[in-house]
Design goal:
Strand order of the largest sheet: 1-2-6-3-7-17
Bound molecules: zinc ion
CATH architecture of the largest domain: 3-Layer(aba) Sandwich
Order of helices and strands: HHHHEEEEEHHEHEEEEHEEEHEEHEHEEH
CATH topology of the largest domain: Aminopeptidase
CATH superfamily of the largest domain: Zn peptidases
Structural class: alpha+beta
Strand content: 15-25%
Radius of gyration: 24 Å
Length: about 400
């Protein structure tokens, strides 16, 4: 890592490398790979194995061995590969292969077919985040030619979009590896700016079990919808408290932890006191806030309500189950990874992002210093007619060329 950092300063060549990058890689090659990747409908609900086979075959053609780390059902997998020395810690380039669905979205172009219009490339996953994968893959021949002294590790995951689920198995595997990557770059869309922080997330489902009866006899029942409403209202008060009392963190559009209820379902008919209601909520926490402490407060309040409900019927209950959870990213500005990755970008800007990545898991669980830096913008991610600017692709290619230069000279 220190070696990487000192090399970064010595060999940084600024824009010059970008102008010459055509010698080692071309956007046509990147676009062809991107066309292939977009062609696989890797919505998180689907398998990503066909895409992985294509990628593995491509890597093999360029003399790179890769391996899969499967999910329990072996229907999806992470891919891991090392290019360059196999016995050294290097730079991990990380991205997810899955995408959000197009269901319910109105697209004016075919989402699973790359198309171009006015310097923009359209398709599901162009911004989030198959273009990064395509740029990385199209740089593989150059990596091979460059005889890297410090390796590049490819880490392509599945099920990121449903709560950073898939990558955990890869992290488990890497934890048992004698060699962990020295640094990690997550290529989520940041318009190629170096991002060092994002919030963590904890999402939970709350199930309220009341007691059914005819609405005319309401006091004899336990209205699950009413109790859910009180719980939701408590969460709203918590949200307002975070807004006014903090803690606060700089660099975010919303500089404090947010609490939000997303969906609620309960009751069957107006003349029945509902015995069931459930809702889901999330906490998106800044680094200084432990969402489990907030959850503990919430459970404490729920316990009070359970006691109250059980005065009417002992079978009443409130269950709170965590659905997804991932830690925030909070890489210190003076970490070597920040200076190093900044030398690879043409922009000195840095900032935070308002979405989560696998970065928190890599840094907190695996202990690998991590930043987020990738082409495109989340302004276009998850939306119909998702696209990426051709210029973003060039900038990411230039970034990759500089990285190869740093790791080979
Ligand atoms: Zn993403």
């Amino acid at each position: 890592m220190l070696i990487i950092n000192s090399k970064a300063r010595l060999h940084y060549r600024g824009q010059g490398l970008y102008q010459h990058s055509g010698e080692t890689m071309s956007q046509a090659a990147t676009l062809e790979i991107l066309r292939q990747l977009i062609g696989f409908d890797t919505t998180s609900a689907n398998s990503n194995l066909e895409l992985l086979s294509w990628v593995q075959n491509y890597l093999e053609q360029h003399g790179v061995n890769s391996r899969r780390v499967y999910n329990a059902e072996e229907s999806k997998a992470n891919l891991y590969a090392t290019i360059g020395p196999q016995d050294k810690a290097g730079v991990m380039l990380s991205g997810h292969t899955d995408t959000v669905p197009v269901t319910g979205q109105h697209w004016s172009v075919e989402p699973y077919q790359l198309s171009e219009h006015n310097g923009r490339y359209y398709g599901r996953g162009t911004a989030d985040m198959k273009t990064f994968l395509a740029v990385v893959l199209s740089a593989v021949p150059a990596m091979q030619q460059a005889r890297l002294h410090t390796p590049v590790h490819l880490a392509f995951s599945y099920d990121e979009e449903i709560g950073c689920v898939g990558v955990r198995r890869l992290i488990d595997t890497l934890q048992n590896h004698p060699l962990k990557p020295a640094i990690c770059i997550i290529g989520e869309p940041t318009t190629m700016q170096v991002v060092t922080a994002h919030k963590g997330k904890l999402a939970a489902r709350v199930t309220v079990k009341g007691k059914e009866c005819h609405s005319g006899m309401a006091p004899l029942g336990v209205n699950a919808v009413n109790y859910a409403a009180r719980l939701i209202s408590w969460l709203e008060q918590l949200a307002l408290k975070k807004q006014t009392e903090g803690p606060f963190a700089e660099g975010y559009d919303i500089p404090y932890s947010t609490v939000h209820t997303g969906t609620v379902n309960g009751g069957t008919a107006l003349n029945i006191v509902p015995n069931h209601c459930e809702f889901i909520f999330e906490v998106r926490n800044i680094a200084d806030e432990d969402p489990h402490l907030l959850l503990a407060e919430f459970r404490h309040y729920a316990d009070q309500l359970i006691a109250e409900m059980r005065e009417v019927d002992n079978n009443c209950d409130i269950q709170i189950n965590i659905i997804t959870e991932y830690p925030g990213l909070s890489t210190a500005d003076d970490e070597a990874v920040v200076a190093f990755v900044r030398t690879l970008t043409s922009s000195s800007e840095r900032g935070n992002i308002n979405f989560g990545t696998e970065g928190g898991l890599f840094s907190q669980i695996l202990g690998v210093p991590t930043v987020v830096c990738g082409p495109g913008s989340m302004d276009q991610g998850h939306k119909p007619d998702e696209y990426i600017e051709a210029r973003q692709i060039s900038q990411c290619e230039a970034f990759m060329a500089r990285l190869i230069n740093q790791l080979s000279h």
